[in-house]
Design brief:
Elements (H helix, E strand, L loop, with lengths): L7 H14 L5 H4 L8 E11 L5 E9 L2 E4 L4 E6 L4 E8 L2 E10 L2 E10 L2 E11 L1
Antiparallel strand pairs: 1-2, 1-8, 2-3, 3-4, 4-5, 5-6, 6-7, 7-8
Length: about 130
């Protein structure tokens, strides 16, 4: 993963939690066909509460209904044909969950988790690359 935050582990978890825990896509914008959201997504996580890096980003991959990491950390989750996304991210002892909505080639949502021992939460934004 190509992290630019001060604390890479916290960044990866925050990104993962935000990125695809919040991943919901609008059927009107992307259609309801299986695989409508396939491809790589860049997710930027912003901490709103807790002692975690303020902003981090991470790549995710969507294939069919599955969401996975596109570089670093363990990401498990799914996306419905209508675009609802739920994700769990873990890196070492850090873990986070996220949910949200993707519309067309972008998305937003919320994440929360324990990053390097600190409970944190925030928002995420995603863009299809």
């Amino acid at each position: 993963m190509n992290f630019k935050p001060i604390r890479p582990v916290r960044g990866i978890l925050a990104l993962t939690a935000i990125a695809f825990a919040a991943g919901m896509l609008s059927p009107a914008a992307a259609g309801t066909r299986p695989g409508a959201y396939d491809g790589n997504w860049n997710v930027t996580f912003t901490t709103r509460a807790g002692n975690c890096s303020s902003t981090n980003s991470a790549p995710f991959n969507v294939s069919g209904t599955q969401v996975s990491s596109a570089g670093g950390g363990k990401v498990t989750g799914g996306v419905t044909p209508g675009g609802a996304v739920s994700v769990h991210i873990s890196v070492g002892l850090s873990a986070a969950d996220g949910k949200g909505r993707l519309v067309g080639s972008s998305g937003t949502g919320r994440w929360s988790g324990v990053i390097s021992g600190d409970r944190c939460s925030g928002t995420w934004q995603a863009s299809k690359t």
